[in-house]
Amino acid sequence: MDLHHLREFAAIAESRSFSRAARHLHVAQPPLSRHIRQLEDELGVKLFVRTATGVELTAEGTMLLSQARVVLGDAAAFVDLARRAKEGLANTLRVAMAPGLCEVVNKIRLHLSSRSPRLSIEGTDMSSLRQHAALRRRTADVGLLRHVPDDPDIDAEPLFTEHFVAIVSASHPLAKRRKVRLKQIATDRLMLQDRDWAALAHDKIFALYAAAGVTPSVVTLEAFPGNQASMLKVAAGEAICLGLRGPISRSYTPVNGVAVLGLDEPDASFSVQLAWRKHETSRVVHDFLDAARMLFARHPLHGRRVNGAEPAPLQRAGSRAEAARTERTPRRRSEAGTSR
């Protein structure tokens, strides 16, 4: 089967037009139509039906499209792996990081450096909601993200919990408190990021305010909440913002002149998770996952079920002694619970 024909099939399905697909692929339309007929003959099914505005997938075409994308993705990954091997990058792990989680990845990297000295980690800043798609497209190997909806193609495992904090000016009347309720800061202007930039945090913050029976006074500033420019606004008393703080993570940049207070509200937390492709066989990916599990084994939520599956420890090939120790040592109850 010609991969070019599969690419053309996917392009037509996405554009719902032979002419638009031809322009996108920089080919003439007659050869494109001929290739699709050849593909239909080879498969023994009709892929498209013509409509007044273009074409639509048949039931068979719809079923085959998702698999065609998998094949094309695997082919692209194969070519990329060959390129990386040629350039000496085969041991490079591409890690997608949600905002504020760089230190977590760096701690895992330091732990791995003695065990895998040739491993190189290539980090990419990426919102949580985009990471599953990056894993499916194979533009990322591992994701470190805050909890997002389950995905049948992705395995995920919680590492630890982050809790929301309120960041206020050091001159704020409540700055000396350890914790605050949203009702206590309801009159303060809330600096909130655009939803397109961080939909997960945006929706969670509005849900927390709604649960507290408070309507936030949202202010739109050029600075994103948590970065250096926004912290200057907070220090000046122009607004407050909500951030996340974990054992070694935080979504904000600390500066003098601000106070960070725990947010005393129910469910004011996020689970930080590892994510990777189902049935992953890469040794580099497994080494990274093993290191993360080892480092965060004692934190709340670690090792609990995600997507209905109990995460099993990944063994290094040939490590029979380690496997035997694991088998003889019962798992602690706190590590074998179920997710909320």
Key features?
340 residues, alpha/beta, Arc Repressor Mutant, subunit A, eight-stranded mixed sheet, 10 helices, 12 strands, globular, disordered C terminus
Describe the structure.
With 340 residues, the protein is of the alpha/beta class. It has 3 domains: 3-86, Winged helix-like DNA-binding domain superfamily/Winged helix DNA-binding domain (Arc Repressor Mutant, subunit A, Orthogonal Bundle); 92-159 and 270-335, D-Maltodextrin-Binding Protein, domain 2 (3-Layer(aba) Sandwich); 161-269, 3-Layer(aba) Sandwich (D-Maltodextrin-Binding Protein, domain 2), CATH 3.40.190. It contains 10 helices and 12 strands. The strands form 3 sheets. Strands 3, 4, 5, 6, 7, 10, 11 and 12 form an 8-stranded mixed sheet that branches. A two-stranded antiparallel sheet has the order 1-2. Strands 8-9 form a two-stranded parallel ribbon. A hairpin with a 4-residue loop joins strand 1 and strand 2. Helix 1 packs across helix 3 (29-43) and helix 5 (102-113) crosses helix 9 (283-295). The two termini are 46 Å apart. The model is unreliable at 302-340 (pLDDT under 50).
